[in-house]
Amino acid sequence: MENTEPPVSSTTTRTWHDFLERMRQPSATEFVKTIKNFITTFSKTIPNPEKDSESIQEFFTTMDAAFRAHPLWAGRTEDELENTSEGLEKYIMTKLFPRVFASHPEDIKIDKDLYNKSLLIQQFIEPHHLDIQQKYQNETSWLIAKKELQKINSYKAPRDKLSCILSCCKVISTSLFNTSENPPGADDFLPVLIYVTIKANVAQLHSNLVYIQRFRNRLRLGGETEYLFTNMLSVESFILNIDAKALSMDEIEFENNMESARVIVSGEYNGENVETRRVESENDMEAKLKEVPSVSDLENKGGTMIVMEEKVSEKFWNFPFLYSKVDDLSVGDVDELLNGYKQLVFKYVCLAKGLGVPVLPPPETRDGGGEAVGGVPVAATESEQVEDGTVEGGGDDGVGDSTTETLVAGEVVSQLDYFSANVNIIYTVILFLPFCSITILLHRNHSKRILLQSLLFCNASRIKYQKMEIGNKVYLNNIDQIDEKSHIKVRVLKIWNFVRNNKVCSIEMIIMDEEGTQYQDRVFNQNFSRFRHLLKEDESYIVIKPNMAAVTNGFSYTGHKQTLTLDWKSILKKCDDFSGPVNGFMFVDFNSIIEQTCPKDTFFDVIGHIVSFRPLETSNPVLSKHYIKVTLSNLE
Q1: In the chain, N or C terminus with fewer CB closer than 10 Å?
Q2: How does pLDDT run across 164-197, given as a tens digit for each residue?
Q3: 125 and 263 in one domain?
């Protein structure tokens, strides 16, 4: 099989990986079993194109309905559901490809006839033989279209093979539109597609076309896609039945050309001059393509422009890790770094493919974890590599398993750990003291499902664990004495989002240490990705290198003038050996509230029962301030 890198879009790649990730979730176990049972059972059947097609199409329909009814896809958009179906098709057909592709003797015979016929005709055919107007003749565009079509055998999934045909057709359509004031019609398009297909002479073209017909999900084959694919079927039929009349030749000229072509193909004719002209023509086309600036040229040009600009650093404000050192990074940075890395790869590959230049691997790295060959790290375990639509290897690809593909240079092995967590959204508290009744704010809890992805690093050369050195323990009452080698041990009592102008500005917390001292803590939005999935109410943590900041809003939830903040250098580790007060209650009696002897703007706890309450009200929708007026009574 040709090892040409297929032009897979970033959307296609994300669709594929999204499907694999969903199938690895525990709730998808039954789907995984059903899919693998179908593959095993189908592989044991005797090849029959019509029955095979109906069986697979029926399975696609059944699974599509099952996906839509499953809680894992509840609330998903139509695009997300379609992406799941696309992922299923790709997985199934990748596994069954050796069993169903070119498996029928009749298909193999047509492949040979089509290939041999094109091989002869391409020796003498010219654009005017197909009545292609001079204004539409663009050898450079045709060369690009030919290369797109020739990539079809780099794929195994029907959708990916179909994408090669569509890419070829769109290159031709664009060329026709750019060279004519009036929109070209089918009579202009089809002859060019025939000419390009003959010149491309793709091996097993017929098997590729019937493979798409039989196994591409029929719900996805429609509109412009179906129209262009039908044109390709017409091209195949035209080439198989081509004769003198089809090429605007008389019979004698056609037969003479075919005989000469047979001699050239068989090698019995000294066609050095003919071959030389053909090679020179293709070289000229290649040279024209190479006139497009390379990625390296564009990088050099852009680099020069940046150096010449003032305030260069402002260009990199959106890339916070650019100037970071390895020791500055922690596990909490992985999510943001990985997302940025993927986006960078997608953009780079798309740019390189658009310019027609090779996609180079990252520089060779060695860190004792695995031997690098050609700059690409060798995985520590054998697994089927499914990348960019090109599938190699015959092992289990790991759907339903925990270990996935290498993510960054230096062998980063990813393990997906999924579980549910409750996020408590606590609204701003306002205290009212009308007469002897006590009106307070109640908190509303909203449960959200959070997907946590933990990454296991194996000798990573670019990202590594930040070593946690736990020094002396400091209590919150002596927080001013904390240094980089000491730590505090706390429990999170309350956690909520602070909203301003409908945007979350910080994560606010009330924490308590083993002595029962409470303190306010916060995480600003630039550090959300590091801490937001780690923090949870009623959980205990060891905190190293917290920062201190003054209370800026004039109100302290705990009475302290300072608040702790977790920033880029802070380290947070969950612990299970917390001792001390369980709930951190601060009880006061009703009289101290009625007599207003309690400190202003502080939290406290009371024991009593609810007499009455009113519906939820909103005092400031911009700041998301909501409250419920409740009348309480003591137990006496």
Answers
A1: C
A2: 999 999 999 988 888 776 767 778 899 999 999 9
A3: yes
Question: pLDDT > 70: what percent of the chain?
Answer: 59
Same domain, 141 and 89: no
In 3-state terms the chain splits into helix, strand, coil percentages (rounded to 5) of 45, 15, 40
Where do the H-state alpha helices sit in 101-185? Answer: 105-121, 139-150, 158-178
Which residue type sits at 446?
H
Q: Which two tokens stand for residue 385?
A: 């590599």
Based on the domain organization, do 411 and 458 belong to the same domain? yes
Contact 626, 614 (CB under 8 A): no
CATH number at residue 504: 2.40.50.140
Of 583, 633, 588, 635, the closest CA to residue 611 belongs to: 633
Most confident of 68-82, 106-120, 278-292, 426-440: 106-120
Shared domain for 340 and 271, answered yes or no, is no
- How many helices (DSSP H) and strands (DSSP E) are in the chain? 16, 18
Task: Evaluate whether 541 touches 521 at the Cβ level (below 8 Å).
Answer: no
Q: Identity (one letter) of the amino acid at 496?
A: W
- Token pair listed for 55: 């069986």
In tens, the pLDDT along 321-346 reads 665 666 666 666 776 677 777 767 76
**Which residues make beta-bridge pairs with 512?**
491, 518
Q: Is 1 within the bounds of a domain? A: no
- Residue 239 main-chain phi, psi, to 5 deg: -65, -40
Which residue range(s) make up the domain with 444? 325-367+400-636
- 113 and 95 fall within a common domain: no
Residue 347 lies in a domain: yes
Tokens representing 39 are 């593959």
* CB half-sphere exposure, 207, CA atoms < 13 A: 24
Establish if 244 belongs to a structural domain: yes
CB 466 within 8 A of CB 331: yes
Q: How many domains does the chain have?
A: 3
Under a CB-based contact definition with an 8 Å cutoff, are residues 408 and 338 in contact? yes
Domain boundary among 64, 84, 100: 100
Residue 409 lies in a domain: yes
Handedness of CA 497, 321, 568, 318 (dihedral sign): negative
**Are 338 and 457 part of one and the same domain?**
yes
Domain boundary residue, one of 62, 83, 100: 100
Determine the angle formed by the axes of helices 49-69 and 78-100, rounding to 10 degrees. 150
476: which 2 tokens? 């919150």
Whether residue 410 contacts residue 461, with contact meaning beta carbons closer than 8 Å, is answered with: yes
Residue 412 token pair: 């980063």
Strands 487-500 and 540-544: antiparallel
- What amino acid is encoded at 580 in this protein? G
